[in-house]
Amino acid sequence: MAEQSIISPENLVYKKTGVMTDRELHYCPGCGHGTAHRMLAEAIDELGIQSETIGVAPVGCSVLAYYYLNVDMQEAAHGRAPAVATGIKRVLPEKYVFTYQGDGDLAAIGTAETIHACNRGENFLIVFINNGIYGMTGGQMAPTTLPGMKSSTCPLGRDVLTMGNPLKITELVAQLPGTYYVTRQSVHTPGNARKARRAMKKALEYQKENKGTCVVEVVSNCPSGWKMNPVESNKWMEENMFPFYPLGDIKVPGKGLVSDGKNGS
Amino acid sequence: MKKEIRLMKGNEAMAEAAILAGVDAYFGYPITPQSEIIEYLMSANTAERTGMQVLQAESEIAAINMVYGAAGCGKRALTSSSSPGISLKMEGISYLAGAELPCVIVNVVRAGPGLATIQPSQSDYFQAVKGGGHGDYKLIVLAPSTVQESVDFIRLSFDLAFKYRNPVMILSDGIIGQMMEKVELFEQQPRLSEPPEWATRGKKPGAKSTVITSLHLESEDMEQVNLRLQAKYREVEKHEVRFELFRCEDAEVLFVAFGSSARIARKAMDLARSKGIRAGLLRPITLFPFPVEEIRRLAGQVSGMLTVEMNAGQMVEDVRLAVNGRTPVEHFGRFGGMIPGPDEILEALETRLEEWHQKQPA
Ligand SMILES: Cc1ncc(C[n+]2csc(CCOP(=O)(O)OP(=O)(O)O)c2C)c(N)n1
Ligand code: SF4
Ligand SMILES: [Mg+2]
Fold it and tell me: Best of A27, A78, A103 to mutate for ligand 1, by most ligand atoms within 8 A of CB?
């Protein structure tokens, strides 16, 4: 069969969502940020809410998320996305609002904003990309860096006695009455990516019900910061990150807490 | 319709003015001497009266970023605080200026540095006028000297903020915030119905998405943004200078004072006049833009100028820049919450008068 005859509309099985722009991603090869963007964009697309969605970008590698996510967006100062999203949602309660934040942004400099937005039960979605490191600034230790894990500011490995323990902020906010749906996902295989997309879609749908904050953590890789190639980084993530940050739902509507995250620590 | 006249405390009057001005949202964190603003709003049933949203944030940092979010949606957003809280807001203020978002920030100034005292002061002049946050930016700064002006400036500030897409600061102080005066309130203004086209309101189908940001990674782009901001500030300087003159026509010496200091300086001016000293007073109403031209004009007329400030000498630097050596400019100040009395101001003037007269060409 000639190639031309194969390329026809009825044979089309895959189409890029219009909620992603055509701009080339600046992320390192194999980085999870691009896939996480895509899953979020597809969730928005499937719900048909592109024109009713306002996003908040963080400071971190995904600072330019608004180059790729084809929705109205605001760029927040480092860690302040949940406060910015609160401001948006309070004046436009009928819109769908999300933040997209890294671990440094959400769990270090923005801890207060994160916890208090969740505690007030602000009606927006927090997409939390946990790669255990500060990707953007060159691989420094994050609040989520694993014990013994190396980074440029813990070159001998994280020593929990002097540097503190990794913060399971997702389990922490799940304890708050303000959160409604809290889950931990990954995007490193097609199956996991699909699950992450379903979680984001559910979380966006819940926004209509005005029941509280939804948090979707995505445990992700940072090949550059971890100094590994993409394949190695995914393997390392499965072997080291997932045991500490177990995938799955943590808080589910109707059921409440379904995991305390302890099985992994 | 007859306008309503009430006896009100400065802070509460500003809060009422915010409701009447059709403000969409207020975000704040308690701090003396301005907590009456959020307390008043919380008990005023704003949701029912106008639909205005009022929220007590977890910190001043969160509050100013909530303002950023609401302002980015094209809404009228207000926050208020006092000096230590304003320091915390500075990061957000720089981002608001960089993203060119309109909003109003009230600073009911108390003395510093550090936790200092809750007593009134004007020691945040530099922070308000020269920056405070990082980067080359300017706030439009209004300094009320009465409760009436506190009310009127809330409305004016939002007009200016939206006209120039720039944050506006109302630099009040503990005296004006806490004292009670007669005020004439304006009529209820509608909240904004149509969002400005730069606001994030959800992307229209087929249209490009709207982005609110202060990030411009390429130096060439960032320089253009800086140039545009500077051009805007020059426009503000051209059109928005406001000041008030008292007995300047025949003045041989000039007081320059803003806010509550101007009220006291005016008394000192009357005392001086009664002793035969032809004193005048210039009260800057906008601290940025500063009344440079008027001060320059008066520099050719008077034998000296004395600024009266509740700080160690901040505005005096701007007066000196305007005067550019044409006439002596001195500063008299009290700090730490101490309020200068008219007598000591007059005394300070008299001491300097001798020096100034000696300097006059024979
Ligand atoms: C106030 C402030 N402090 C520090 C920085 C520098 N900085 C930029 S991004 C970042 C860390 C980002 O890490 P993370 O949130 O984990 O995002 P990632 O890049 O890993 O996706 C830091 C420290 C900044 N931009 N602003
Ligand atoms: S530094 Fe890490 S997080 Fe950032 S783009 Fe590269 S791989 Fe992704
Ligand atoms: Mg990170």
Answer: A78
